[in-house]
Amino acid sequence: MINTNVLLLLRSGGLPAQLREHLVTEGFASQVVSTIEELQTCCKKLEGCLILIDSGATEDGAVKSVRELISVKDELKNHPILLVGKYADAFEETLETHFEAITTVETPCAVHDIVAALVFLQRSVSRRVLDVAAEQRQKTRSDAVQQTLLDKIESIPKLLFKRLESINSRAESFDVSLYSSSLDLEYFESRNVYPASFEVRNIIREICRDAGKWGRLHLCRVAFIANEIAKLLPMQASVREQLVPAAFLYAWSFCDSEPEFLKQTYHLGDQELFRKNYCSRVKDSAMKVSVELGNPIAANIISAMAKAIGRENSSSDDDISIAASLLMAADMIDRACFQNVHWSSRAAYFVLRRIKAGQLSDIHPAVLCCIVKFLSDRIAASSNLYLLHHRVRTNATLIERAKKLREEPVAENELKVPLEKLLPGMRLSRPIYAFDGREVLEREVRLDEDLIWRIWQLQAIRPLNAPVITLIDEE
Fold this sequence. Notes:
β8 and β9 form a beta hairpin. The chain contains 22 helices and ten strands. The protein folds into three domains: 5-130, Response regulator (Rossmann fold, 3-Layer(aba) Sandwich); 139-382, Hypothetical protein af1432 (Orthogonal Bundle); 386-471, no CATH class. Helices cover 51% and strands 9% of the residues. Strands 2-1-3-4-5 form a five-stranded parallel sheet, sandwiched between helices. It has a three-stranded antiparallel sheet with strand order 6-10-7, with no helix packed on it. Strands 8-9 form a two-stranded antiparallel ribbon.
Protein backbone atom coordinates (compact mmCIF):
# COMPACT_ATOMS: atom_id res chain seq x y z
CA MET A 1 0.00 0.00 0.00
CA ILE A 2 1.31 3.47 -0.90
CA ASN A 3 2.20 5.53 2.15
CA THR A 4 0.40 8.91 2.21
CA ASN A 5 1.77 10.24 5.51
CA VAL A 6 4.13 13.21 5.30
CA LEU A 7 6.18 14.58 8.19
CA LEU A 8 7.06 18.26 7.72
CA LEU A 9 10.15 19.56 9.53
CA LEU A 10 9.51 23.29 9.15
CA ARG A 11 11.90 25.94 10.42
CA SER A 12 12.31 29.02 8.27
CA GLY A 13 8.74 29.55 7.10
CA GLY A 14 10.05 29.95 3.56
CA LEU A 15 7.90 27.27 1.94
CA PRO A 16 4.92 28.20 -0.24
CA ALA A 17 1.75 29.19 1.57
CA GLN A 18 -1.10 26.69 1.82
CA LEU A 19 1.33 23.79 1.36
CA ARG A 20 -0.52 21.60 3.84
CA GLU A 21 -3.87 22.39 2.23
CA HIS A 22 -2.52 21.36 -1.18
CA LEU A 23 -1.14 18.14 0.30
CA VAL A 24 -4.61 17.30 1.59
CA THR A 25 -6.13 17.80 -1.87
CA GLU A 26 -3.52 15.39 -3.27
CA GLY A 27 -4.46 12.74 -0.72
CA PHE A 28 -1.61 13.24 1.76
CA ALA A 29 -1.94 13.45 5.55
CA SER A 30 0.67 15.84 6.98
CA GLN A 31 2.06 16.43 10.45
CA VAL A 32 4.42 19.26 11.44
CA VAL A 33 7.46 18.74 13.67
CA SER A 34 10.00 21.33 14.79
CA THR A 35 13.13 19.34 15.72
CA ILE A 36 15.08 16.40 14.35
CA GLU A 37 14.44 14.55 17.62
CA GLU A 38 10.69 14.98 17.24
CA LEU A 39 11.02 13.80 13.65
CA GLN A 40 12.75 10.60 14.79
CA THR A 41 10.02 9.90 17.33
CA CYS A 42 7.24 10.33 14.77
CA CYS A 43 9.05 8.18 12.21
CA LYS A 44 8.94 5.25 14.64
CA LYS A 45 5.16 5.55 14.74
CA LEU A 46 4.68 6.21 11.01
CA GLU A 47 6.81 3.51 9.45
CA GLY A 48 7.84 4.29 5.86
CA CYS A 49 6.24 7.76 5.82
CA LEU A 50 7.56 10.52 3.56
CA ILE A 51 9.71 13.27 5.09
CA LEU A 52 9.85 16.89 3.91
CA ILE A 53 12.60 19.02 5.44
CA ASP A 54 12.75 22.80 5.09
CA SER A 55 16.47 23.67 4.92
CA GLY A 56 15.81 27.40 4.81
CA ALA A 57 17.11 30.26 2.71
CA THR A 58 20.72 30.31 3.92
CA GLU A 59 23.67 28.09 3.19
CA ASP A 60 24.32 27.64 6.91
CA GLY A 61 20.77 26.44 7.40
CA ALA A 62 21.16 23.94 4.58
CA VAL A 63 24.44 22.62 5.99
CA LYS A 64 22.84 22.21 9.41
CA SER A 65 19.88 20.30 7.94
CA VAL A 66 22.14 17.99 5.93
CA ARG A 67 24.38 17.26 8.92
CA GLU A 68 21.36 16.46 11.08
CA LEU A 69 19.97 14.14 8.42
CA ILE A 70 23.22 12.25 8.06
CA SER A 71 23.58 11.95 11.84
CA VAL A 72 20.29 10.02 12.03
CA LYS A 73 20.52 8.20 8.69
CA ASP A 74 20.12 4.77 10.28
CA GLU A 75 16.79 5.77 11.83
CA LEU A 76 15.53 7.31 8.57
CA LYS A 77 16.85 4.76 6.07
CA ASN A 78 13.37 3.37 5.31
CA HIS A 79 11.86 6.78 4.59
CA PRO A 80 11.81 8.72 1.29
CA ILE A 81 13.08 12.25 1.93
CA LEU A 82 12.53 15.58 0.18
CA LEU A 83 14.88 18.46 1.08
CA VAL A 84 13.50 21.89 0.16
CA GLY A 85 15.45 25.13 0.38
CA LYS A 86 17.44 27.74 -1.50
CA TYR A 87 20.64 25.65 -1.44
CA ALA A 88 19.02 22.21 -1.39
CA ASP A 89 20.22 21.08 -4.84
CA ALA A 90 23.85 21.63 -3.88
CA PHE A 91 23.66 18.80 -1.35
CA GLU A 92 21.72 16.25 -3.40
CA GLU A 93 24.75 14.23 -4.49
CA THR A 94 26.09 14.09 -0.91
CA LEU A 95 22.76 12.89 0.44
CA GLU A 96 22.44 10.24 -2.27
CA THR A 97 25.41 8.41 -0.74
CA HIS A 98 23.56 8.07 2.57
CA PHE A 99 19.90 7.56 1.64
CA GLU A 100 18.14 5.15 -0.70
CA ALA A 101 15.38 7.54 -1.79
CA ILE A 102 16.01 11.28 -1.61
CA THR A 103 15.56 14.28 -3.86
CA THR A 104 15.72 18.06 -3.56
CA VAL A 105 13.74 21.11 -4.66
CA GLU A 106 15.24 24.60 -4.64
CA THR A 107 13.28 27.61 -3.44
CA PRO A 108 11.68 29.84 -4.45
CA CYS A 109 9.30 27.31 -5.94
CA ALA A 110 5.60 26.74 -6.43
CA VAL A 111 3.45 24.40 -4.35
CA HIS A 112 3.01 22.06 -7.29
CA ASP A 113 6.80 21.60 -7.53
CA ILE A 114 6.89 20.23 -4.00
CA VAL A 115 3.78 18.11 -4.47
CA ALA A 116 5.15 16.70 -7.75
CA ALA A 117 8.40 15.71 -6.05
CA LEU A 118 6.51 14.00 -3.20
CA VAL A 119 4.25 12.16 -5.61
CA PHE A 120 7.25 10.95 -7.58
CA LEU A 121 9.01 9.75 -4.43
CA GLN A 122 5.81 8.09 -3.26
CA ARG A 123 5.46 6.11 -6.48
CA SER A 124 9.12 5.31 -6.90
CA VAL A 125 10.10 3.99 -3.49
CA SER A 126 9.41 0.60 -2.06
CA ARG A 127 5.85 -0.39 -1.20
CA ARG A 128 7.18 -1.99 1.94
CA VAL A 129 10.06 -1.33 4.36
CA LEU A 130 13.36 -2.38 2.81
CA ASP A 131 14.33 -5.88 3.88
CA VAL A 132 18.00 -6.24 4.76
CA ALA A 133 18.23 -9.74 3.31
CA ALA A 134 16.61 -8.67 0.03
CA GLU A 135 18.99 -5.73 -0.16
CA GLN A 136 21.92 -8.08 0.30
CA ARG A 137 20.67 -10.32 -2.50
CA GLN A 138 20.37 -7.27 -4.69
CA LYS A 139 24.00 -6.37 -4.05
CA THR A 140 25.37 -9.83 -4.71
CA ARG A 141 23.34 -10.97 -7.72
CA SER A 142 24.79 -11.04 -11.24
CA ASP A 143 28.40 -10.85 -10.04
CA ALA A 144 29.79 -11.06 -13.55
CA VAL A 145 27.79 -8.05 -14.73
CA GLN A 146 28.67 -6.06 -11.62
CA GLN A 147 32.33 -6.87 -12.24
CA THR A 148 32.04 -5.54 -15.77
CA LEU A 149 30.21 -2.39 -14.71
CA LEU A 150 31.95 -1.39 -11.51
CA ASP A 151 35.38 -2.98 -11.21
CA LYS A 152 36.95 -2.85 -14.64
CA ILE A 153 36.62 0.91 -14.91
CA GLU A 154 36.52 3.60 -12.27
CA SER A 155 33.10 5.10 -13.02
CA ILE A 156 29.84 4.27 -14.77
CA PRO A 157 29.98 7.40 -17.01
CA LYS A 158 33.46 6.45 -18.27
CA LEU A 159 32.36 2.89 -19.00
CA LEU A 160 29.27 4.03 -20.86
CA PHE A 161 31.10 6.62 -22.98
CA LYS A 162 33.66 3.96 -23.83
CA ARG A 163 30.91 1.63 -25.01
CA LEU A 164 29.16 4.44 -26.86
CA GLU A 165 32.38 5.03 -28.76
CA SER A 166 32.82 1.34 -29.52
CA ILE A 167 29.38 1.08 -31.17
CA ASN A 168 29.68 4.53 -32.76
CA SER A 169 26.29 5.55 -31.37
CA ARG A 170 27.31 9.19 -31.23
CA ALA A 171 27.04 9.29 -34.98
CA GLU A 172 23.39 8.28 -34.73
CA SER A 173 20.42 10.29 -33.53
CA PHE A 174 17.43 8.64 -31.96
CA ASP A 175 14.10 9.90 -33.26
CA VAL A 176 13.09 10.76 -29.69
CA SER A 177 10.42 13.27 -30.72
CA LEU A 178 8.19 10.32 -31.58
CA TYR A 179 8.67 8.73 -28.15
CA SER A 180 5.43 10.00 -26.68
CA SER A 181 1.96 8.99 -25.55
CA SER A 182 0.65 9.16 -29.13
CA LEU A 183 2.58 6.23 -30.64
CA ASP A 184 0.36 3.64 -32.29
CA LEU A 185 0.56 0.56 -34.53
CA GLU A 186 0.40 2.69 -37.67
CA TYR A 187 3.91 3.94 -36.91
CA PHE A 188 5.36 0.43 -37.26
CA GLU A 189 3.24 -0.43 -40.29
CA SER A 190 4.44 2.70 -42.10
CA ARG A 191 8.13 1.95 -41.44
CA ASN A 192 8.23 -1.62 -42.63
CA VAL A 193 9.17 -3.05 -39.23
CA TYR A 194 5.83 -4.74 -38.67
CA PRO A 195 5.68 -8.54 -39.03
CA ALA A 196 4.72 -9.78 -42.48
CA SER A 197 2.54 -12.59 -41.14
CA PHE A 198 -1.15 -11.66 -41.10
CA GLU A 199 -1.67 -14.11 -38.23
CA VAL A 200 0.91 -12.34 -36.07
CA ARG A 201 -0.48 -8.93 -37.03
CA ASN A 202 -3.97 -9.96 -35.96
CA ILE A 203 -2.68 -11.33 -32.65
CA ILE A 204 -0.80 -8.09 -31.97
CA ARG A 205 -3.97 -6.09 -32.65
CA GLU A 206 -5.89 -8.33 -30.24
CA ILE A 207 -3.20 -7.88 -27.58
CA CYS A 208 -3.35 -4.09 -27.94
CA ARG A 209 -7.14 -4.14 -27.74
CA ASP A 210 -7.20 -6.37 -24.64
CA ALA A 211 -4.44 -4.41 -22.88
CA GLY A 212 -6.51 -1.22 -22.74
CA LYS A 213 -5.33 2.26 -23.68
CA TRP A 214 -2.43 2.51 -21.21
CA GLY A 215 -1.21 -1.00 -21.97
CA ARG A 216 -1.46 -0.46 -25.74
CA LEU A 217 0.53 2.77 -25.59
CA HIS A 218 3.10 1.16 -23.30
CA LEU A 219 3.63 -1.77 -25.68
CA CYS A 220 3.99 0.60 -28.65
CA ARG A 221 6.61 2.62 -26.79
CA VAL A 222 8.48 -0.53 -25.76
CA ALA A 223 8.56 -1.63 -29.40
CA PHE A 224 9.75 1.86 -30.42
CA ILE A 225 12.64 1.88 -27.92
CA ALA A 226 13.66 -1.64 -28.91
CA ASN A 227 13.57 -0.85 -32.62
CA GLU A 228 15.54 2.40 -32.25
CA ILE A 229 18.28 0.96 -30.03
CA ALA A 230 18.59 -2.29 -31.99
CA LYS A 231 19.89 -0.26 -34.93
CA LEU A 232 23.04 0.47 -32.92
CA LEU A 233 23.70 -3.01 -31.55
CA PRO A 234 25.59 -5.77 -33.35
CA MET A 235 22.85 -8.33 -33.83
CA GLN A 236 21.89 -10.89 -36.46
CA ALA A 237 19.17 -9.67 -38.82
CA SER A 238 17.00 -12.69 -38.01
CA VAL A 239 17.00 -11.70 -34.33
CA ARG A 240 16.59 -7.97 -34.95
CA GLU A 241 13.52 -8.46 -37.14
CA GLN A 242 11.78 -10.38 -34.35
CA LEU A 243 12.24 -7.62 -31.75
CA VAL A 244 9.17 -5.58 -32.66
CA PRO A 245 6.83 -8.62 -32.73
CA ALA A 246 8.32 -9.84 -29.43
CA ALA A 247 7.74 -6.37 -27.92
CA PHE A 248 4.00 -7.02 -28.21
CA LEU A 249 3.83 -10.81 -27.91
CA TYR A 250 5.45 -10.95 -24.47
CA ALA A 251 2.10 -9.68 -23.07
CA TRP A 252 0.03 -12.30 -24.91
CA SER A 253 -0.72 -14.55 -21.91
CA PHE A 254 -1.89 -11.86 -19.46
CA CYS A 255 -2.99 -8.72 -21.34
CA ASP A 256 -6.69 -9.66 -21.21
CA SER A 257 -6.91 -11.17 -17.72
CA GLU A 258 -4.19 -9.28 -15.81
CA PRO A 259 -3.43 -6.01 -17.64
CA GLU A 260 -2.09 -4.54 -14.38
CA PHE A 261 1.14 -6.44 -15.08
CA LEU A 262 1.82 -3.78 -17.73
CA LYS A 263 1.63 -0.90 -15.25
CA GLN A 264 3.62 -1.55 -12.07
CA THR A 265 7.21 -0.30 -12.04
CA TYR A 266 9.95 -2.77 -11.15
CA HIS A 267 13.22 -0.86 -11.60
CA LEU A 268 13.69 -0.51 -7.83
CA GLY A 269 15.64 -3.04 -5.81
CA ASP A 270 13.06 -4.71 -3.61
CA GLN A 271 10.23 -5.90 -5.88
CA GLU A 272 11.16 -9.57 -5.97
CA LEU A 273 7.60 -10.89 -5.57
CA PHE A 274 6.29 -8.85 -8.52
CA ARG A 275 9.30 -9.82 -10.61
CA LYS A 276 8.72 -13.50 -9.85
CA ASN A 277 5.04 -13.38 -10.80
CA TYR A 278 5.71 -11.23 -13.85
CA CYS A 279 8.48 -13.59 -14.95
CA SER A 280 6.03 -16.50 -14.81
CA ARG A 281 3.46 -14.69 -17.00
CA VAL A 282 6.05 -13.72 -19.61
CA LYS A 283 7.24 -17.34 -19.73
CA ASP A 284 3.65 -18.35 -20.49
CA SER A 285 3.68 -15.92 -23.41
CA ALA A 286 6.92 -17.44 -24.70
CA MET A 287 5.28 -20.87 -24.65
CA LYS A 288 2.27 -19.59 -26.61
CA VAL A 289 4.53 -18.00 -29.21
CA SER A 290 6.48 -21.24 -29.58
CA VAL A 291 3.51 -23.62 -29.71
CA GLU A 292 0.79 -21.57 -31.41
CA LEU A 293 2.91 -19.49 -33.78
CA GLY A 294 5.89 -21.79 -34.29
CA ASN A 295 8.27 -18.83 -34.01
CA PRO A 296 11.34 -20.10 -32.13
CA ILE A 297 13.36 -16.87 -32.32
CA ALA A 298 10.63 -14.64 -30.88
CA ALA A 299 9.84 -17.33 -28.31
CA ASN A 300 13.49 -17.54 -27.24
CA ILE A 301 13.75 -13.74 -26.93
CA ILE A 302 10.63 -13.60 -24.75
CA SER A 303 11.75 -16.59 -22.68
CA ALA A 304 15.16 -14.97 -22.08
CA MET A 305 13.41 -11.71 -21.23
CA ALA A 306 11.36 -13.54 -18.59
CA LYS A 307 14.50 -15.02 -17.05
CA ALA A 308 16.13 -11.56 -16.98
CA ILE A 309 13.07 -10.11 -15.24
CA GLY A 310 13.13 -12.92 -12.69
CA ARG A 311 16.91 -12.61 -12.29
CA GLU A 312 17.30 -16.28 -13.06
CA ASN A 313 20.50 -15.81 -15.01
CA SER A 314 23.15 -13.17 -15.64
CA SER A 315 23.38 -11.28 -18.91
CA SER A 316 25.54 -12.84 -21.65
CA ASP A 317 26.75 -11.63 -25.03
CA ASP A 318 24.77 -13.82 -27.43
CA ASP A 319 22.23 -12.09 -29.68
CA ILE A 320 19.16 -13.59 -28.00
CA SER A 321 20.32 -12.46 -24.54
CA ILE A 322 21.09 -8.93 -25.77
CA ALA A 323 17.70 -8.70 -27.50
CA ALA A 324 15.98 -9.96 -24.34
CA SER A 325 17.88 -7.49 -22.16
CA LEU A 326 16.88 -4.70 -24.54
CA LEU A 327 13.19 -5.66 -24.30
CA MET A 328 13.32 -5.84 -20.51
CA ALA A 329 15.11 -2.47 -20.32
CA ALA A 330 12.57 -0.84 -22.66
CA ASP A 331 9.69 -2.31 -20.65
CA MET A 332 11.23 -1.24 -17.34
CA ILE A 333 12.29 2.27 -18.40
CA ASP A 334 9.01 3.16 -20.10
CA ARG A 335 7.03 2.24 -16.97
CA ALA A 336 9.28 4.51 -14.91
CA CYS A 337 9.19 7.49 -17.30
CA PHE A 338 5.48 7.38 -18.19
CA GLN A 339 3.97 6.76 -14.75
CA ASN A 340 1.38 9.50 -15.23
CA VAL A 341 0.58 8.70 -18.91
CA HIS A 342 2.85 11.54 -20.09
CA TRP A 343 6.63 11.68 -20.32
CA SER A 344 8.37 12.81 -17.11
CA SER A 345 11.88 14.28 -17.34
CA ARG A 346 12.11 14.13 -13.55
CA ALA A 347 11.45 10.37 -13.67
CA ALA A 348 14.10 9.95 -16.38
CA TYR A 349 16.50 11.90 -14.17
CA PHE A 350 15.95 9.41 -11.35
CA VAL A 351 16.53 6.50 -13.73
CA LEU A 352 19.86 8.01 -14.83
CA ARG A 353 20.84 8.41 -11.18
CA ARG A 354 20.12 4.74 -10.52
CA ILE A 355 22.14 3.72 -13.56
CA LYS A 356 25.10 5.81 -12.41
CA ALA A 357 24.89 4.17 -8.98
CA GLY A 358 25.11 0.72 -10.62
CA GLN A 359 21.58 -0.20 -9.51
CA LEU A 360 20.36 -1.41 -12.92
CA SER A 361 23.24 -3.79 -13.51
CA ASP A 362 20.95 -6.63 -14.57
CA ILE A 363 20.68 -4.85 -17.95
CA HIS A 364 23.38 -5.80 -20.47
CA PRO A 365 26.11 -3.07 -20.52
CA ALA A 366 25.79 -2.45 -24.26
CA VAL A 367 22.03 -1.98 -23.88
CA LEU A 368 22.50 0.15 -20.79
CA CYS A 369 24.73 2.68 -22.53
CA CYS A 370 22.18 3.02 -25.36
CA ILE A 371 19.40 3.54 -22.80
CA VAL A 372 21.47 6.34 -21.24
CA LYS A 373 21.87 8.07 -24.60
CA PHE A 374 18.20 7.53 -25.49
CA LEU A 375 17.00 9.08 -22.21
CA SER A 376 19.52 11.91 -22.46
CA ASP A 377 18.38 12.72 -26.01
CA ARG A 378 14.73 12.62 -24.90
CA ILE A 379 15.43 14.90 -21.92
CA ALA A 380 17.27 17.37 -24.16
CA ALA A 381 14.32 17.39 -26.58
CA SER A 382 11.82 18.10 -23.80
CA SER A 383 10.52 21.51 -22.87
CA ASN A 384 11.07 21.46 -19.13
CA LEU A 385 10.17 25.07 -18.38
CA TYR A 386 7.10 23.87 -16.50
CA LEU A 387 9.52 22.75 -13.77
CA LEU A 388 10.28 26.40 -13.08
CA HIS A 389 8.16 28.80 -11.09
CA HIS A 390 5.57 30.63 -13.20
CA ARG A 391 7.28 33.97 -12.54
CA VAL A 392 10.55 32.57 -13.90
CA ARG A 393 9.30 30.81 -17.01
CA THR A 394 7.22 33.83 -18.05
CA ASN A 395 9.92 36.40 -17.30
CA ALA A 396 10.36 38.42 -20.51
CA THR A 397 14.00 39.23 -19.74
CA LEU A 398 14.93 35.57 -19.28
CA ILE A 399 13.03 34.53 -22.39
CA GLU A 400 14.81 37.18 -24.45
CA ARG A 401 18.18 36.19 -22.97
CA ALA A 402 17.64 32.53 -23.85
CA LYS A 403 16.68 33.50 -27.40
CA LYS A 404 19.76 35.70 -27.70
CA LEU A 405 22.05 32.89 -26.53
CA ARG A 406 20.49 30.47 -29.05
CA GLU A 407 20.91 32.90 -31.94
CA GLU A 408 24.27 34.38 -30.96
CA PRO A 409 26.85 33.97 -33.76
CA VAL A 410 30.00 31.99 -33.08
CA ALA A 411 33.61 32.80 -33.92
CA GLU A 412 35.73 30.83 -36.40
CA ASN A 413 37.27 28.76 -33.64
CA GLU A 414 33.91 27.99 -31.97
CA LEU A 415 31.18 25.39 -32.54
CA LYS A 416 27.56 25.15 -31.39
CA VAL A 417 26.90 21.72 -29.89
CA PRO A 418 23.48 20.43 -28.73
CA LEU A 419 23.49 19.04 -25.19
CA GLU A 420 22.94 15.47 -26.38
CA LYS A 421 25.99 15.70 -28.69
CA LEU A 422 28.54 16.71 -26.05
CA LEU A 423 31.70 14.59 -26.03
CA PRO A 424 34.50 14.10 -23.51
CA GLY A 425 37.43 16.43 -24.30
CA MET A 426 35.34 19.34 -25.57
CA ARG A 427 36.28 22.70 -24.02
CA LEU A 428 33.73 25.41 -23.28
CA SER A 429 34.43 28.79 -24.86
CA ARG A 430 31.49 30.37 -23.04
CA PRO A 431 29.68 29.58 -19.78
CA ILE A 432 26.63 27.30 -19.65
CA TYR A 433 23.61 29.05 -18.15
CA ALA A 434 20.36 27.70 -16.78
CA PHE A 435 17.18 29.34 -18.06
CA ASP A 436 16.76 31.13 -14.73
CA GLY A 437 20.06 32.96 -15.33
CA ARG A 438 22.36 30.97 -13.04
CA GLU A 439 25.78 30.02 -14.36
CA VAL A 440 26.14 26.23 -14.36
CA LEU A 441 29.67 25.89 -15.76
CA GLU A 442 32.23 28.62 -16.38
CA ARG A 443 34.13 29.09 -19.63
CA GLU A 444 37.37 27.23 -20.38
CA VAL A 445 36.16 24.08 -18.59
CA ARG A 446 37.14 20.89 -20.41
CA LEU A 447 34.32 18.35 -20.33
CA ASP A 448 34.83 14.80 -19.16
CA GLU A 449 32.41 11.88 -18.94
CA ASP A 450 31.20 12.73 -15.46
CA LEU A 451 30.56 16.40 -16.26
CA ILE A 452 28.55 15.50 -19.37
CA TRP A 453 26.53 13.00 -17.36
CA ARG A 454 25.79 15.71 -14.78
CA ILE A 455 24.73 18.14 -17.52
CA TRP A 456 22.35 15.54 -18.95
CA GLN A 457 20.86 14.91 -15.50
CA LEU A 458 20.60 18.61 -14.66
CA GLN A 459 18.71 19.33 -17.88
CA ALA A 460 15.93 17.06 -16.59
CA ILE A 461 15.22 19.22 -13.55
CA ARG A 462 16.70 22.64 -14.38
CA PRO A 463 16.30 23.71 -18.03
CA LEU A 464 19.56 24.86 -19.60
CA ASN A 465 20.09 27.36 -22.38
CA ALA A 466 21.40 25.36 -25.32
CA PRO A 467 23.27 24.79 -27.56
CA VAL A 468 26.62 24.84 -25.81
CA ILE A 469 29.48 26.84 -27.38
CA THR A 470 32.76 24.93 -27.48
CA LEU A 471 36.24 25.71 -28.77
CA ILE A 472 37.64 23.93 -31.81
CA ASP A 473 41.05 22.85 -30.53
CA GLU A 474 43.88 23.33 -33.00
CA GLU A 475 45.82 20.22 -33.86
